[in-house]
Specification:
mainly alpha; 4 strands; disordered N terminus; two-stranded parallel ribbon
Length: about 325
């Protein structure tokens, strides 16, 4: 997306910060308590900014490989170092012996460390001049890795990570020319971290629709991954159910990487264990897949109370209604 067409929630231009000078940061809190509160969310500045951010990145990665050339700023490097630290903590916190197969309680030890250290970790990403924003932004990072009580993970946690990145854009830590690196470096690294958490601690899917859901854990990489494949000269949606083709292209395309992970984690015919994805393989073009997934994301994630009831609102993603 050209800078002149910048959407709400997209990364600010290099010469401006996206926050008003008089903004008071606050630790985000729950605002959606009952189903009727969903109207507040859909009318909120947070919703406009969040979906604007997702769509801006969707446009930015269109037709591009993960392996293409793009700028990697110091802020991106700092975020990757933070995620590498969280990965190392998994190695330092092995699963414990327990009778139940799923939900290994060692995840709680790992999470406690993140809960205690999140703000310190973020001080290496957010410059001292914006130090007041750290507690607000840290909350989204802590919400992005799963629930420590239920030891589960799902699209609501994934949305918290996207909100975390959106906040970093709004305070000017991430900028317009970081867009490709946000998806191909930071979000991709986050996905690898989440997959390692899921496998190591046998995390349950949060609110999974089972075989009728798109995926047990993720949604956004399917949106951005389908955008990457728009107008591809040879790869069509029907090809992603072919394991050989997936294995050949997974390093270049996020969509193929997600399918590869599903193939590794599930057994049996693809049409049975991932029926919704199987249906998508019949769509004629990646452009139609992308548009359909955006509609599905809004309907199945952003407009579902069980997902959005956990979303937190602060000064950067406020519950305040958008002015008409």
């Amino acid at each position: 997306m050209a800078e002149a067409e910048q959407q709400p929630g997209s990364c600010p231009k290099d010469d401006v910060q996206h926050i008003p000078a008089n903004l008071s940061f606050m630790v985000p809190k729950k605002e959606i308590h009952m189903v009727p509160d969903m109207g507040k969310w859909k009318r909120s500045q947070a919703y406009v900014d969040y979906i604007g951010f997702i769509l801006t990145l969707n446009e930015g990665v269109k037709g591009k490989k993960i392996t293409c050339e793009y700028k990697v700023s110091e802020s991106i490097e700092n975020l990757l170092a933070l995620l590498n630290t969280l990965d190392r903590w998994i190695d330092e916190t092995p699963p414990i012996d327990q009778p139940s197969r799923f939900g290994n309680k060692a995840f709680r030890l790992w999470y406690t460390k993140l809960d205690q250290e999140a703000e310190n970790l973020l001080r290496s990403v957010i410059p001292p001049a914006l130090g007041a924003a750290v507690p607000e932004v840290a909350l989204y990072l802590k919400e992005a890795v799963g629930n420590s009580t239920r030891i589960d993970y799902g699209t609501g946690h994934e949305a918290a990570f996207a909100a975390f990145l959106c906040c970093l854009c709004k305070i000017g830590v991430l900028r317009v020319d970081d867009q490709l690196a946000i998806v191909f470096k930071v979000f991709d690294r986050y996905l690898k971290l989440m997959r390692k958490l899921q496998k190591t601690y046998r995390m349950e899917p949060a609110g999974s629709q089972g075989v009728w859901g798109l995926d047990d854990f993720q949604f956004l990489p399917f949106i951005w991954g389908s955008s990457q494949l728009v107008d591809h000269p040879t790869l069509e949606p029907r090809h992603f159910v072919d394991e050989k083709i997936v294995n050949e292209h997974h390093k270049d395309y996020m969509f193929m990487e997600c399918v590869k992970f599903i193939n590794e984690m599930k057994t049996g015919p693809f049409a049975e264990h991932s029926n919704q994805l199987w249906n998508i393989s019949a769509v004629p073009t990646w452009s139609k897949v992308n548009q359909g997934l955006i509609r599905m994301y809004k309907a199945e994630c952003l407009e579902k109370f069980p997902v959005i009831q956990h979303f937190k609102f602060g000064s950067l993603l406020p519950i305040l209604s958008v002015k008409p």
